[in-house]
Amino acid sequence: GCGGVAGPRLVIRGMVGSCAWVLLQAALLAAAERELHLRPPAEDPVRLFTEPELARYDGQKEGQPIYLAVKGVVFDVTSGKEFYGKGAPYNALVGKDSTRGVAKMSLDPADLTHDITGLTEEELKSLDDTFNNVYKAKYPIVGYTSRRILNEDGSPNLDFKPEDQPHFSIKDEF
Length: 174
Hints:
With 174 residues, this protein is α+β, with helices and mostly antiparallel strands. The protein has six helices and four strands, in the order H-E-H-E-E-H-H-H-E-H. It is globular and about 50 Å long.
């Protein structure tokens, strides 16, 4: 029952089919699995980042993770320190949502923003390609910008969906 939610690894013996219990178990299993693959030590699996919080991960402090947001998705780019670390060529992109800069392949401070107003079709296509084939393919997602999760008035955005990262073999929770 329960629409086959519990994957092959989840066996509940002697339980009278409580769907809620099975769903909870499946969610916990999925979360644990995700944690194993993705989680930098002592970080929560999904975090909401405000701009000042994100700014703390700008690659300036040795031993501190380096985060970069594209399209409101925060990636841990620490493994690409030679590109994103202190004094590295793309360090200007980190510690903020640099969606526009990624779309335009620009490090101009005016382009280092989430704002994509007025981008050309070609720039938007380039943004999606880079987002999917570089960032989602190479770097773990550690959270989302508050702009991506919340509405303008600060209420939760009910349309928010976490990104899937098949490369990191994350399973859908339900």
